[in-house]
Amino acid sequence: MSTPDRETVTGLPPGIAAAREELTPMLSQYADLCAAHEDALVLFQVGDFYEAFCEAAETVARVCEVTLTERTDSTGEYPMAGIPIDNAAPYLDTLLDAGYRVALGDQVEDAEQASGLVDRAVTEVITPGTVVEDDLLESGTTNYVAALASGSAEETTSHDEPDPTLGLAAVDVSTGECLVTAGDPDTVIGELDRVAPAELIVGPDAAAFAPSDAAGNWERHEYDPEAFDRRAARDRLEPYVSAPERRFEYDAELRAAGAVLAYAEYTQGDDGPLEYVSRVRRYDPRDGLRLDAAAQRSLELFENRGLGASDTLFDVLNETNCALGRRRLERWLRRPLVDADAIRSRHDAVGELADRTLAREGIADALSTAYDLERLIGRVSRGRADARDLRSLHATLDMVPELKATLSEAATDATDTAGASGNSLPRTDHLTNLRDRLDELGEIRELIDDAIAADPPQEITDGGVIRDGFDRDLDELRATEREGREWVAELEASERDRTGIDSLSVGHTQVHGYYIEVTDANLDRVPDDYHRRQTLKNSERYYTPELKEREEEILGAAERADALEYELFVEVRDRVAEETERIQALADALADLDVLASLAAVAVANDYVRPEVTEDPDAGIRIEGGRHPVVERTEDAFVPNDADLPRGSVAVITGPNMSGKSTYMRQVALAVVLAQTGSFVPAQAARLPVLSRLFTRVGASDDIAGGQSTFMREMSELTEILHDAGSDSLVLLDEVGRGTATTDGRAIARAAAEFVHDELGATTLFATHYHELTDLAAERERAFNLHFSATREDGDVTFLHRVVRGASSSSYGVEVAELAGVPAPVVDRSRELVAVDEGESDSAAGGSAVGGDDADSTDADSHDDDAPGDVDDALGVDDAPDVDDASLREFLTEETEGDERADPSLTDASGGGSSAGDSPESTADIPPDVATILRDLDLARTTPMEALNTLSDLQDRLAHDD
Ligand SMILES: Nc1ncnc2c1ncn2[C@@H]1O[C@H](COP(=O)(O)OP(=O)(O)OP(=O)(O)O)[C@@H](O)[C@H]1O
After folding, report:
1. S-S: 171 plus which of 178, 784, 868, 955, CB 3.0-4.6 Å?
2. Which Gene3D superfamilies does UniProt cross-reference here (predicted)?
């Protein structure tokens, strides 16, 4: 969202301010509304248009591309621009997109009834986080406005612990959902990423913590400090939750919640508490698998930069049938569970629905007729619902009994014997419980059906909304109107008879009402009781006293009927509003059911398997034949891969570019996310622990978000991982260190891998092109190597996309460049340079006992006789390394240690073959630390003095070792 120059266009336009003393009453009213809404662009209703004046008009004209006109009145000329009220949505959307908040100054009094100036008031301030108009909201999404407040120790309320620093509250004004949490700044800012509000308001003391707009997608601004005041916040919360200070443990959350509700009320026209915000839910971020924004992005849960925008995990899983389910799926996926029983319970339900095709399809059919009850009830409760909304509510309620029956039938269409027993309950507790939560709300359904016309008009003030037979008075008024009209309809024939004028006609105009028309040629036959109403060119129009009386009767009855209908409608709407909480609870159950049915449909369609979930704190990740749920949809022949990652292990993954390293790492992480969300996983079998946190750090250029991709960012993400990850975490490190010079990058990668292994004990997948990192397997107990290989035949590279034990041999960087279409001269020249480099490194390393740092030649799986270094391995030809199925099977059945012992490269730290083909024994005598120092010494950047010092240091080390 771009930031407009709000100085001149929000609040009171300078041109109006300058003329303030002499404005007409109407512009003066405009000026008052502007002055009261300094942070908004005021649109002022004048008849059928929303108008803005002076500088604000210039903005509206420019942003909305509407004509700038001029208003002239007794006090001067003012630029003016307007948008039509009955088609305002696209213009409001454009203004929101351009970063404006818009205050709607509506006429709140009937212009015809008003004596003098029509009363106007701001009925709504439309902001990115608080829009409620369906036209401006995407269906099935959440739209939060969030508030951030910081607590201070002195204000600590009911406990002795020091206050955590930040409180976060978010409310979806369209549905009434309200979330509140508190914690240390890192946790809460991570949570903010997850909630992903459209708008963030910050308290006076929290500004320093709040991430800037550039980091997130929300519009951030400060809001009235008084709303964040503890007492004010407490008072604000009172109508929403009883005893707020007891409900909220920390000041920071109480103040954030109070402020966000104050802001929400302000945007809804300051009409007092928003009654449909009945679910203020306080939660602990640790209650869900923590996925920060970086993880959400790099796992492409909701956004995909590489493939089409819709190729995301969400998109794969989204077979939901209604907006409620879509919104719920997003919520589940943003916050996977960490409670093993709750996870298994969802798996039970998904399994049952997957088994029972008929029931699943019946549920999908029923839910596809459900409207967005959460937003509907929001409108009902705000008094903004029209008759069509109530009919939509009715249609949804109407489907519930059938849905319940289908759910019970779930037990009888099973292929297994348990289901065939005729038991009329669902098989699993989860679905039984869900069925019980499906409140039929029969009385509300009947009320709406009795009261509201089947196909009512949108306007609720013009009649036609209430059904015949619902209210006796209304029926009588309608009968009067109908009889009157019938009488008029017959009048023409009877008057022709009476007067003998065959051309006599009876008609009606809006202005003059009913008339009897006689042409000039017949005027002599007009009876005495005809009174002249209007003279036309060739005729005269008349009325009779009886016609006038009937007309008044008809009009009076119609007017009173309209008013009565409106009253009755509001009564029905208020009655429905009384059941807000029950309707919200029903919406909740429908949403859950839709997601579970969707997950089941996806599992069946894509051949997912139920993962075994274990609470064993030492259990690692074991996946057989795992696939990447998104990539498998676009790859014709996706190659499944196994994963066996003991708890706390570090798998160093090497392999050529494009061989599938990133895909593999992500598919492992996605299996964890899917399983903990309640979904089955794309694999043949899986046994997964319940993890608490998932971290990812992917290479800089893989993660370009709005030009933010820098080495600095890479390092700050790494920092977060190194601070926070633990044995309950899964960490993906993809080419860490790539964003800087090779020497530094390699050093950082190595040090980070060691730290993760030694200090954190986090289960880690580390993809790298730094082959030196494969040494880690020999040096660290829980580290091991995996690699992807490729074959080359007649110069063509084929990627096998198959993971195998051991380290890789080749990068095929030049080949990948060629595949990508890099012009032949550049490719050829690259080959030459690689060859030169290789030659140089060969001669530089020739005879050196320490040149053999390369893990490739230690690789039991590699058939490579070449001597690739870190840059020079592109041509180290890996002639079709055999990947036999037996080794793949071993992969899952052998213990890691046993496996490593079987792999000579993993038992002998010094076994790395030198790039010059030196004997391994010659390097075996060199202590590893000396070898590391020598290897990492960047001669191009070393001064003679530094070289001497380094040599002296090495000598000391050797002497010490001796
Ligand atoms: N298991 C698989 N089966 C089939 N195709 C795959 C598989 N894994 C990856 N691919 C395809 O290979 C391509 C490269 O995969 P990926 O990005 O994972 O490679 P990489 O080794 O991480 O590459 P780089 O080192 O260049 O980042 C992807 O476009 C993907 O479609």
Report:
1. 178
2. 1.10.1420.10, DNA repair protein MutS, domain I, MutS, connector domain, P-loop containing nucleotide triphosphate hydrolases
Tokens of 506: 């009876």
Q: In whole angstroms, what is the distance from residue 520 CA to residue 457 CA?
A: 42
More confidently predicted of 247 and 743: 247
Q: 546 near 490, Cβ under 8 Å?
A: no
Question: Tens of pLDDT along 651-690?
Answer: 999 888 788 899 999 999 999 999 999 999 999 999 999 9
Measured CA to CA in angstroms, residue 713 lies from 303, 359, 716 at distances of 19, 49, 5
Ligand 1, pocket-test mutation among 627, 653, 663, 870, most atoms within 8 A of CB? 663
Identify the residue whose tokens are 């519009």.
Answer: 219
**Upper half-sphere CA count for residue 125 (Cβ side, 13 Å):** 24
Cα angle 695, 690, 323; round to 5: 80
CATH architecture of 318-441+580-606: Orthogonal Bundle (1.10)
Please tell us whether the domain made up of 472-575 is placed in CATH 1.10.10.10.
Answer: no
Please tell me the pTM assigned to this model.
0.76
Top-level class of domain 136-287: alpha beta
Q: How far apart are CA 827 and CA 532, in angstroms?
A: 98
Arithmetic mean of pLDDT, 462-478:
90
- H or E element, residue 199: strand 199-202
- Tell me the pairing of strands 763-767 and 729-734: parallel
202 forms bridges with which residues in the sheet? 148, 222
Is 727 annotated in some ligand binding site? no
Q: Which amino acid is at 775?
A: D
Q: Which helix (H) or strand (E) holds 290?
A: strand 290-291
Ligand 1 nearest-atom number relative to CA 702:
27
List CB contacts of 344: < 8 A, sequence separation 6 or more.
Answer: 613
Q: What are the helix (H) ranges across 623-779?
A: 631-634, 661-677, 711-724, 742-755, 776-779
- Tell me whether residue 922 is annotated as binding: no
By most ligand atoms within 8 Å of CB, the mutation choice from 667, 736, 801 for ligand 1 is 801
DSSP string, 216-269: SSSEEEE--GGGGSHHHHHHHHTTTSSSHHHH-SSHHHHHHHHHHHHHHHHHTT
Contact indicator for 235, 273 with CB cutoff of 8 Å? no
Cα 430 to Cα 172, 424, 592, 593: the distances in Å are 27, 15, 10, 10
Domain 318-441+580-606 and domain 472-575, same fold? Reply is: yes
The DSSP output letter for 208 is T
Contact predicate 671/688, CB 8 Å: yes
Q: How many angstroms separate the CA atoms of 238 and 232, rounded?
A: 10
Measured distance CA(46)–CA(626) in Å, rounded: 63
